Amino acid sequence: MSIKVSSLTKIYGTQKAVDNISFELKKGEIVGFLGPNGAGKSTTMKMITGYIPPTNGTAEVCGFDILKDPMEVRKRVGYLPEANPLYFDMYVREYLGFTAGIHGLGKSAKDRIEEMIGLTGLGKEAHKKIGTLSKGYKQRVGLAQAMLHNPEVLILDEPTSGLDPNQIAEIRELILKIGKEKTVLLSTHIMQEVQAMCSRVMIISSGKLVADDAIESLKQVNSRGGLIVTFETEVKDASLKQLNNASGIEKLGANQWRLISEKPEELRKEVMQWALNNDINISALQVDKQSLEEVFRTLTK
């Protein structure tokens, strides 16, 4: 496993910021880490990177324990904190050179710096002081430093914060490309990003891990219990009330209905037969799943 978290806990005074959570991430996974503000996302990420120590439990990165082998962990992790601390008086290349020195890249540093500048789209800004850059370009500098030493694991806390739509698309493509060879754990509040990039989602609420599954599985498990049916012609609600397996009906559009049921599969068969018997064409029929945003709200409210 690239990341293995075991009963990780962080307590500040009387508050449990992270409460006994466990999970594992494999190489090649891009996992979204979601939760409300103050839920414990950043604290968890900081513990995995060795930035702060846990109160109880531990974590391993590429087989190295964060408490027993902290330097080995740091060699294998690229970390972009939410605050993205940078030296504003340094030039972009100067800062990346400084970071390369910390990682001991030696003779390969110059080529690697230029590669990261190209990869993150910093070419036109590389001669400028970091303090003069826009927030979006500062974020790119943070991404470049996180990837500079070619780590096996990337931990990104709000990686697209402050970027415009074009920049978000570029960084999204970059993360997808990186994720094929590395393990990526990223937090974000933008659900579209999660659905576009992540193969799996973990949701934390009040320090507890309340969900850990593939996105479609989460939607399925948290489905409303029923079907969304779209007919090619107008259908009266009185006709739909004939369906034995529909405990409720709700009109969504001109020819679209939500049919509520505790037995959606039985209802699906019944609707198909009912439409055939009444010579009515169905243009779309699907399980009434919650959106990822609705799942998030359900599990964290």
The H-level CATH homologous superfamily of the largest domain, spelled out, is P-loop containing nucleotide triphosphate hydrolases
User: Can you tell me the number of structural domains?
Assistant: 2
Q: Give the overall pLDDT as a whole number.
A: 88
The level 1 CATH classification of the largest domain is: Alpha Beta
Task: Note down, in words, how this protein is organized.
Helices cover 36% and strands 27% of the residues. It folds into two domains: 211 residues, Rossmann fold (3-Layer(aba) Sandwich), CATH 3.40.50.300; 65 residues, Alpha-Beta Plaits (2-Layer Sandwich), CATH 3.30.70. The model has no long low-confidence stretch (mean pLDDT 88). A hairpin with a 2-residue loop joins strand 1 and strand 2. The chain is elongated and about 75 Å long. The chain has eleven helices and 14 strands. Helix 4 crosses helix 5.
List the SSEs and their pairings.
Elements: E1 3-12, E2 15-25, E3 30-34, H1 41-49, E4 56-61, E5 64-65, H2 70-76, E6 77-80, H3 92-103, H4 109-119, H5 135-147, E7 153-157, H6 165-179, E8 183-187, H7 191-197, E9 200-205, E10 208-213, H8 215-221, E11 226-231, H9 237-240, E12 248-251, E13 256-260, H10 264-277, E14 282-287, H11 292-300
Parallel strand pairs: 3-8, 3-9, 6-7, 7-8
Antiparallel strand pairs: 1-2, 1-4, 4-5, 9-10, 11-13, 11-14, 12-13
Helix pairs in contact: 3-4, 4-5
In short:
By secondary structure, this protein is an alpha/beta fold. Helices cover 36% and strands 27% of the residues. The strands form 3 sheets. It has a 6-stranded mixed sheet, sandwiched between helices. A 4-stranded antiparallel sheet has the order 2-1-4-5, covered by helices on one side. A 4-stranded antiparallel sheet has the order 12-13-11-14, covered by helices on one side.
